[in-house]
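Posted in: Structural Biology > Protein-Ligand Complexes

Title: Requesting predicted complex, zinc ion in pocket

I'd be grateful if someone could produce the 3D structure tokens for the following input. Sequence and ligand are given below.
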Amino acid sequence: MPTRYKAADKRTGVAVRRASAEFQNLRLRFRPDHLNVVLLKKYTKAMYARLEKADREMMIAIAMATYDDLDREGAAEVVDGVLSAYDPVTGYVYHREVIRKRDRLVESMAAAQDRAAMQEAISRAQRLWVAQMKQFADEVVDAAMIKSYRDAGIGRVRWVTVPDAKRCTRCAELDGEEFSIDDIPSKPHRHCRCYVVPVE
Ligand SMILES: [Zn+2]
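-- Reply #1 --
Done. Output follows.
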């Protein structure tokens, strides 16, 4: 049932295009021959802040689309909970990782000897940004869904593995297992689109 993540897929498509435009501007603006690192740092700081802010708004919209009864404030709380906590799936805190990825981009651009190397550094940063954004958008879906169960007084859930999701072979043994809502295991891998359903 991949429709569960439809709210995320629709909106991350827009975010992918936004990231693509931002990274393209970066490609056009900086060249390895006269690279001004101070300017580059300033530019990427503002750029990543814009991306982070826009993606947070997108994730708030995803939370509201996933759980109809959430207002903006409640949705922001869900999103900020996901973005500010240590994430067991990725092994990092979102915001800290954004800064780390940005600093690595600046380093690799500064180290680039030619135009091709610089383009590759930017493309790599773009891929990493998009992968991170999609991962956390899915986690916002999960968090909003679990909050909706909790608010409805549901105490137990059952793990559902999407049978056609090739990436989720590692989740097969969790399929059909029941858990207390306070004790749901972390997703075993990135891009996992398994989900839990209430046990009546
Ligand atoms: Zn899975």
